[in-house]
Amino acid sequence: MGSLQRMRRAALVLTLLAHCYSGQSLCRSFAAQRSLDQLRQKSGNQIHTPAITNPLNRMVVPQEEMRIITAISEAGSAGDWPRAKAAYIRSKGLFTNVFNAAMVAAFKCRYYNDGVAIYKRLCNAGLPKTEVTYTYALKIFSKLGQLDQVRDIIQEAKEQLKPGIPLFGAMIDAAAEAGKVTEAIEILDTMRSENLVPDTAAWGSAINACKTARNSTVARHLVNFMIKVGVEPNYIVFCNAVGAHNGAGLVHLQKLKSDMAGMGIKGDFLFVETYVFSLIGTQFSARSVTEAVDELSELDPERLTEMASIISEARASQIRLTGLVKNVEGALQRLGFG
Ligand SMILES: *[C@@H]1O[C@H](CO)[C@@H](O)[C@H](O)[C@H]1NC(C)=O
Is 231 part of any domain? Predict the structure, then answer.
């Protein structure tokens, strides 16, 4: 692909931002890009041993180690970390694949600190890292909120290999955890410029960044943009977009709900709760109907009507309501709505 074409493609998302925020933000995006490049050029200062080819890895993985990988993976999928860890400990620690399997299992079982220990051991052993290694290291460190490590891993991964969709996805997730909207969009841009088609999950996690940052404008534009480039949103995309609209204008929330229904995507109890919370617009935590009455009585009647309507729609579709939403339902009845 020609570089001009590539630039045109890459500019798409930035153009989107420019539309939202006048020329200024475009400059800011480029500034952010520059500092990322500087970051990439900065050498040294890495905590990880750079990947080096270990002759041992050219060897066929022996049967015993293969069995260990299987045992780790099975236990990890079953959510049984102690069993996965016991299998991992039996390994001689000579093969990246065993470490990868253990990191995946630790992540699935949410034993993030153990995941870090496994990653560090792999680094110290000087074993080569694969895309799976970097992807899960990123997921683990971003769950722990260790942003410096996240940054270093992204840098090292980009130096060592050409990231594919899963690794880019983990990078967007890391940006999303930290609520870094511009960074998430830049990663989408990079993917597009490298001719990778960001999938629904990648767009969904960029919209999740908007949710963390409460950036409804960008969330809305990302939903429209993904549809425009032919990627179908799913339930998670809408759930995140609605979450990004906490306290935002009623019309925007109503539009998201009707777009979702128009695409035949069904909500569930989590969507209903997210929608109700976004209508309320504060950290809602009423533990009783009486407390909920206090919180809701401040709100605009139009928002209360909308709340009553989504709750009754949920009842009609037999969606199980969460405790908090039930309190809202009770409060709405007391206030004469629904
Ligand atoms: C939303 O994100 C964009 C891009 O990072 C930024 O320019 C804008 O200021 C953000 N808006 C809000 C309300 O945070």
Answer: no
